[in-house]
Structure formats: structure tokens, C-alpha cells
Amino acid sequence: MKEIWTTLASIMGVWAFFQSLMHNIFPAEIRLIFQKTFNQFINYFSVYCYYEITEIDGVNTNELYDAVQLYLSTSASIAGNRLSLTRLLNSSALTFSLSNHDRVVDNYKNVPVVWEHFVMQRQSQTISWRPLPEDKRVFTLRVKKKDKSIILDSYLDFIMEKANELKRKNQDRLIYTNSGGGVMDPRGMIPWESVPFKHPSTFDTLAMDPGKKAEILDDLLGFAKGESFYQRTGRAWKRGYLLYGPPGTGKSSMIAAMANFLGYDIYDLELTGVNNNSELRKLFMKTSSKSIIVIEDIDCSINLTNRNDKKNDHVNAIPGIPNEGIEDMGNKITLSGLLNFSDGLWSCCGSERIFVFTTNHVEKIDPALLRSGRMDMHIHMSYCSFSALKILLKNYLGFDDEGSLKSETLKELEELIGKANITPADVSEILIKNTRDDEKAVKELIRELKIRGEMIKCSKKDDVNVEYVEKDNEEKYVDGDAHEDDLGNK
User: Fold this and answer.
1) pLDDT value at residue 133
2) Cross-strand partners of 105
3) In the prediction, which pLDDT does 427 show?
């Protein structure tokens, strides 16, 4: 052992003497050439190659550095020895990151890669328009040369994708509104204002038929994972949904469930606050990717009624303005502008956006707005069904499908719910009032369903009687005309 240390010390001494000799005899240019040649010689026989990813690339922030830091946080929390804890803005979770000179081993497609983090003191700064941090932070990626193509072709893209998923998962949802009183920035007015979105609605708690719910979930998943499909087919990566049905059937809860399921932000667009088509385009350009753009009660927001509905022409017509134009309380958005907003050239500015329109009267909307490409999937939010009722009973009273209620009670509820046009919102209100007494809640619900069923039954009878009377009067009127004609002829 003593001989080994003696030999090693001799080698180091010879190397130090050689470096001193080189420094004193050869000029700097020759030394630089020698150093470069020596490094190339060493790298030629090395089985590894190295890549550096710096935090600041020149004067710009390197997005890849942030992505690597977030991606490695999942591995570093388990494998790292010395970790740094951070919490991102608008984030609900802590993230781990590697400290100085700490390393972690990752595995991608059975290819081992080694990440190491270095924090170095930055040299004296040159004059720049942006002050740089004192420390220079660098991730070093070490991989075998034979695996170089795999890493460069797909591994870094994989890291960016995973980092974006983690960011959306950890970041709080935001809901935006175009209030018209935005905050000033150096480039002008910011048209959107945001607050944290904390709506608890999910597809598990949504009162809807399970089959229809599964169909919507499959469609959303297909959209979220369909980037390659949209690129291959030459279509903009967007999708439109129309939610229609009576008030209180869960249209707003559906939007919240979609946002929570996909991890998207919501832009609640108030059309009455938009002055013209140009402003509408600017609002759209300020929306981010991976977002849901919502226009609620589109039939009430502005005058976009069905142009083919001749019955409403006298109501919708405005003197001097075509029927497809809108000028209501100073609002000058046209139907053409809204169509271009949802399916025109401007709709391609960005990616992974969902448009959701809601209405209580789908028959009032112009067919041009309802076609595929603008509203791809039409979802009817109907009155409460028996399957939706069971979900509400589970949400509010904790009843499950394994016998929390008697079979006779369930059978009665199933029979009554089909005859009473009651919305999930009305059922929820009855259950909320009686959450402390489950038995009373069920009795109140049964009583309300019976009352509504009787009202519908009576209204149907009245409609039949009115129809019979009108038909009878019409026959008498026709007979009377015929009798008078006969007398006149005589």
C-alpha cells in the first residue's frame, strides 16, 4: 500500500513539473493547442459524452433547465442525498431539487443517464441590460456514446412533456374574466383578470348518466393526447362542446369538472363586455394554451338567434342593420366575427384549447355556429335521471349501491323520478336542507317528486282539453262558413 501511494505521488510530481515547464517555455497559443489536443485524445477513448444545461442562456432564461429541475424533483425526492425545497407561484405542492454537486441516476428506455447539478460563482459581469444572478447553475447530463441518439432524439422532449404535466398538476387552476378594467403593463392593457379556481366538481361527483359521462371522458382524453393526430391531419388542436338543456341541469358543474380533469385554466368570456370583432380577436390572442374558453348562455349574451327562424325576425331585426349583425347596447360583434373566433384563422393561434358554449334554448342558435368544427360535441344536460339521483344521494347523504336504502324506497324513487321533470339542482337543494336527517331528506324528496309528477299529469290533461276545444271550435267555424255560403247561394 505504501508503494502505491509513493508511485502516485511521483506521478503527480512529474505532472506538476511538466505543467510548469510548459507554462515557462511554450507560449499561451501552443499551450491551448496542446490542451485541446489532449482533451480530444482523452474524449476519443472515453465511453461517455457530456451535455451542459445552464440556467441562463446568454441573457435569456433556459426553459430546458427549469424543465429538468422539475422533472428530476420526482426522482430527487427519493434518491437525492442533499436536496433543496421550493414552492412555485400558484402551486399547491412542494418540489425537490438537487443541491450543489449532488447527482441522480435516471433510466429512459433501459438507458441509464446520470444527472449532476453544479453551482459555481459567476465571473465578473459585463455590462448588460439584464442583471445576471451571482451564481451560475448548470445541469450536466452524462450518457454513453452508443446511447447518444436515443437521448437527443426523444429523451429531452420527454422531459419537457413530463415537466409540463407536473406543472399543471401542482399549479392551482385559474379562472379569467374580461372585466374591461385590466392592469396596465409596459405594452398596454391586460384584458384578462384572474382569481384561483377552487371549484370541487369532478366527474365522480357529477350527476349524470354513467354511459354519457364515460363518452365525454373518452372524448376529452382523446383530445388531450391527440397532438400527433391533429398535426398529421392538418387541423388546429382545438375542440368545441355545446352544453344545452334547462337551467339547473349542471352545465357549469360540467365545465368545472372538465377543467379539473384536464388541469386546464378557464377563460370566462363575457360577450357583452366586448365592443367589436377586433377586440374579440385580441382577447383570444391573450389566452394561453391548455385552457377552456367558456361562453355561457350564448343565446342571451348577444343577439345571435337563428337566421332561419322567421318567427323571430320582427323581434331580432334592427333597422338599417342586417339580421346577422349585432348592435345591442353599443355591442358591435357580428356573427361572422364569432364564427372566425371559434373556427377561423385566428383560432389556430395557439394549441390545445377547448371552446365550451352553453345555452338553455339550442333552437335559437344559428346553425352555422352549431356545425362540427365549432361545436364538435353536443351534450344534452337533461333532467335528473335515476342513475344521476343515486350519485346525488351518495354525494349528500353517503348512500351507496350496497343497500343503504331499502329496495322498496329505491324502486319508488326510480318510478317517481321518471315522471317528474326535476333538475339535479332542485334535488341537491332538497338534500342539502336535510343533510342532518337522512330519513327526512328521502321523505321530502319523495313528496316533491310526487307533487311534480301530479303537476305534469294535470298539465297534460289541460293540454289535451285545450286541443280538443280548439279542434271543435274550428270544425264549428268551418261548418258555419259553409252554411252561410249555402244561404248566400240560395
Assistant:
1) 58
2) 114
3) 94
Q: Where are the domains of the chain?
A: 48-124+132-170, 175-380, 386-472
The Cα 88–Cα 163 span in angstroms is 13
Is the per-residue pLDDT at 346 higher than 90? no
Partners of 50 in the beta sheet? 142
What DSSP string runs through 279-338?
A: HHHHHHHTSPSSEEEEE-SHHHHS--B-TT-GGGHHHH-BTTB-TT---BTTB---HHHH
Q: Residue 418: which residues within 8 A CB-CB, separation 6 or more?
A: 385, 386
Q: Is residue 122 a contact partner of residue 132, using CB atoms and an 8 Å limit?
A: yes
Q: Which tens digit of pLDDT belongs to each residue from 62-77?
A: 888 888 888 887 765 4
Considering the domain 175-380 in this protein, what is its CATH number?
3.40.50.300
pLDDT of residue 191: 80
Tell me the C-alpha distance between 110 and 127, whole Å.
46
Three-state DSSP class for residue 143: strand
* pLDDT score at 321: 37
Measure the CA angle with vertex 182, ends 177 and 183; round to 5°.
135
Distance, in Å, from the CA atom of 244 to the CA atom of 381, rounded to the nearest integer, reads: 6
342 phi-psi bin (left φ>0, alpha ψ -120 to 50, beta other): alpha
- Which CA distances in Å does 423 have to 114, 162, 214, 295, 351? 57, 40, 21, 22, 35
- The upper half-sphere exposure of residue 32, i.e. CA atoms within 13 Å in the direction of its Cβ, equals 3
Q: What does 339-395 look like in DSSP terms, one character per residue? A: HHHHHSGGGGSSSSEEEEEEES-GGGB-HHHHSTTTS-EEEE--S--HHHHHHHHHH
Instruction: Using a pLDDT cut of 70, give the percent of the chain over it.
Output: 67
Dist CA 274 CA 332 (whole Å): 8
Grid coordinates representing 81 are: 442525498
DSSP readout, 22-89? HHHHS-HHHHHHHHHHHHHHHHHH-SEEEEEEESEETTEE-HHHHHHHHHHHHHHHHH-SSEEEE--T
